[in-house]
Design a protein that fits this description.
The chain is 45% helix and 16% strand. With 319 residues, it is an alpha/beta fold. The structure holds pyruvic acid (PYR).
Length: 319
């Protein structure tokens, strides 16, 4: 029988694309997107969308019960950079919201997917590469809330059998949707600026290496991990990796298509400090071994795809 899926934070960078993939697999009506914002017309017309505030426990419970939800994908969160700019709200959404979701998942026997991040590591973590299990002392409210999510989910799994599943995502690169205020956002903006003006001013230093992933790989990883049988999982929280690059390296790759791209560097203290505390590479060998994770986008494929997709977007907007 098909799962019935609810996605919170569905209008962020990842929700609509994951819903598309899940709907192809399980049927349009079995995948419900939710958010606190009004969806654009194309989202509203492509399948079920409902209002859901993760801070409103009863509203969320009503949605889960009335729609016979069996899988919950919890994408609602404030990311690293906006979280630091708004710590009180980040604490509410990322921690109080998480508690609501955990309680409801347990109460309704849901399979619960929560993404974690390279941001769940800190300056005392091994950075090159960061393994699944190591010291985690992040210095951002975002990172602290994600470590809390990993630990709470694993605790409830071991104590009460909650089917908790967590992937630590790298920075996600997407053409059709904007990232929501992370430290890795430059790696999306550089493509737009390269095509629009030929100049990109980067808020990170040229040599700042961070793990990154094309959104197609991210969605496929999430689907494959959700589909894995419980006996395949030796962990409940896995790193997943694809590529790892610096601003200079992605700029150089873009120049193989757009030779005149000019990049300047004006490091922003907050985001540079965050980036310097994060892993440069992810060790994802457990995900590869346990449930067969394997990325398809390397840096050249990622760059070719992004430039092509943004060119198409721009052509559509010109019409
Ligand atoms: C961020 O840039 O905030 C990530 O989570 C990677």
């Amino acid at each position: 029988e098909n799962p019935r899926v609810l996605i919170t934070g569905g209008l962020g960078q990842l929700g609509v694309g994951l819903a598309q993939l899940l709907r192809k697999q399980y049927g349009t009506d079995n995948v419900i997107l939710s958010d606190v914002k009004k969806p654009p017309a194309e989202v509203f017309n492509s399948g079920p969308f409902v209002y859901a505030d993760v801070l409103d426990y009863k509203n969320l419970r009503e949605l889960i019960v009335n729609n016979r939800i069996t899988w919950l994908v919890h994408y609602s969160a404030l990311l690293s950079a906006v979280g630091e700019a708004n710590v009180a709200l980040a604490r509410q959404i990322n921690i109080t919201g998480l508690h609501n979701v955990l309680d409801l998942a347990l109460e309704n026997c849901l399979r619960l997917f929560i993404p974690s991040t390279i941001g769940a590591f800190g300056p005392s973590s091994p950075r090159d590469p960061a393994p699944d299990l190591c010291v985690q002392r992040p210095r951002t409210i975002y990172g602290v809330s994600k470590v809390h999510a990993e630990l709470m989910g694993e605790y409830l799994h071991h104590k009460h059998g909650l089917d908790f599943r967590c992937l630590r995502y790298p920075g996600i690169i997407s053409a059709d949707t904007q990232p929501g205020g992370g430290t890795t956002d430059y790696a999306v903006q550089i493509f737009h600026d390269a095509l629009r003006t030929g100049h990109f001013d980067c808020y990170l230093r040229a040599d700042t290496r961070l793990p990154m992933m094309h959104i197609g790989d991210c969605h496929r990883a999430t689907l494959e991990f959700l589909q894995a049988s419980e006996c395949q999982l030796s962990l409940r929280t896995y790193n997943i990796a694809a590529v790892s690059f610096t601003p200079e390296e992605v700029a150089q790759e873009i120049r193989t298509h757009l030779p005149h791209l000019r990049v300047t560097y004006t490091p922003d203290l907050v985001r540079q400090t965050i980036a310097d505390s994060w892993p440069m590479r992810f060790d994802d060998s457990n995900a590869r071994r346990d449930w067969g994770w394997k990325p398809v986008f390397g840096l050249p494929e990622l760059v070719t795809d992004m430039l092509g997709a943004i060119r198409e977007q721009r052509a559509r907007e010109d019409l």
